[in-house]
Design a protein that fits this description.
The protein is of the alpha+beta class and about 140 residues long. It has one domain: Trna Endonuclease, Chain: A, domain 1 (3-Layer(aba) Sandwich). It has three helices and eight strands; from the N terminus they run αββββαββββα. It has a five-stranded mixed beta sheet with strand order 1-2-3-5-6. A hairpin with a 5-residue loop joins β7 and β8.
């Protein structure tokens, strides 16, 4: 994923979470290769009374052209570590470039496919995932 495309997707998701779903959302400036620490792309929270699964979410955002996502094992382990330390849910949110503004696909970590090499993926055939509204919407 290009840095610009990824940054744009992270900003768009953070804005949607705050503006449409009543979450507090913050992009983490030190995600990815910028640090050795476990940092998700977006950390979001809201009052626990508004959420079925918890009040904090650690989110890895992937913007891709075709819906296929590859995550290395270290990336998934760091997301799980951050979520465990914070008592949060861990999610991968995919933003395919299918020329439709509303297409976001949400996957909990346990739904990722483990590859033969020990990494993880979401295949185009796995689409659609859960919609943003189902996982993070105002009624979720």
């Amino acid at each position: 994923m290009s840095s610009r495309k990824g940054d744009r997707a992270e900003r768009e998701l953070s804005n949607w979470l705050e503006d449409e779903a009543d979450w507090y959302a913050q992009r983490t400036g030190s995600s990815g290769a910028a640090t050795d620490r476990a940092r998700p792309d977006v950390i979001a929270s809201r009052d626990h009374r508004h959420s079925r699964w918890g009040r904090v979410a650690m989110i890895e955002v992937k913007a891709v052209d075709d819906g296929t996502v590859h995550l290395d094992a270290h990336e998934v382990e760091e997301l799980q570590e951050a979520a465990s330390r914070a008592g949060a849910g861990a999610w991968v949110v995919i933003r395919p470039n299918f020329n439709r503004h509303d297409q976001w696909h949400v996957y909990p970590l346990h739904e990722l496919h483990e590859t033969d090499g020990g990494n993880y993926s979401v295949r185009k055939s796995d689409l659609p995932g859960r919609p943003l509204e189902e996982v993070f919407g105002a009624d979720a």
